[in-house]
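Q: what sequence does this backbone want?
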């Protein structure tokens, strides 16, 4: 049994069917990526998993438990945490306060402080910015805050939605190195990313979405070599 299983889900925005019966699986400690053009259904998939949208059909199971009807806060408390598209940090709070918000389901102050220190090791630049209002940071620094905030929940699985969007090339490379580091520490990653080359390079497995349907799937290296993928997404 996979850690995360999606079975034939259909998701609608009013009368518009955004996901048309997709199924996928994420094994524990894997990096799995969803690639596809804008509007393919990638972010909608993550929102359905995290409880922000509710499928009209199909099932989503996490660690063997059906997620249907659960609120996003309940799902997050189960160790399934999302880093949203566009960062969505608390812009008026300091970096330190943003990190503490990530630990809202936890009570052990000593462990929270230890994890905060661990985030400073993972993102050394944030140590210099702890007292700075988060909304004044650069885009790359805000992405660090968003990722560190998610990690403060001690997740078993992280859903990452377009983490490289709008970032300079050097920062994009750093983002993907961070994803690999997080995964090496035992965290499962489901990654939505328009940069198909970078995503498939680090992914154990990948799915290609088009118009709400999965049209291809396979190991990341195999998809990189697939002529259809190269023609459509790699240029």
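A:
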């Amino acid at each position: 049994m996979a850690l995360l299983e999606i079975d034939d889900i259909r998701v609608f925005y009013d009368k518009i069917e955004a996901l048309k019966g997709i199924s996928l699986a994420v094994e524990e400690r894997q990096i799995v990526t969803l690639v596809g053009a804008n509007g393919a259904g990638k972010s909608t998939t993550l929102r359905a998993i995290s409880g922000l949208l509710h499928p009209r059909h199909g099932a989503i199971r996490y660690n063997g438990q059906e997620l249907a009807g659960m609120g996003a806060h309940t799902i997050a408390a189960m160790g399934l945490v999302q880093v949203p598209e566009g960062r969505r940090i608390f812009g008026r709070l300091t970096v330190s306060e943003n990190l503490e918000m990530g630990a809202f389901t936890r009570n052990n102050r000593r462990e929270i402080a230890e994890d905060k220190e661990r985030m400073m090791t993972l993102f050394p630049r944030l140590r210099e910015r702890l007292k700075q209002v988060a909304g004044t940071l650069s885009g790359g620094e805000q992405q660090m805050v968003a990722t560190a905030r998610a990690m403060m929940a001690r997740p078993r699985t992280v859903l990452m939605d377009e983490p490289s969007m709008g970032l300079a090339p050097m920062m994009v490379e750093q983002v993907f190195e961070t994803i690999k580091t997080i995964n090496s520490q035992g965290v499962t990653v489901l990654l939505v990313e328009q940069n198909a080359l970078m995503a498939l390079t680090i992914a154990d497995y990948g799915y290609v979405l088009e118009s709400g349907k999965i049209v291809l799937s396979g190991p990341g290296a195999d998809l990189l070599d697939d002529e259809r993928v190269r023609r459509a997404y790699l240029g």
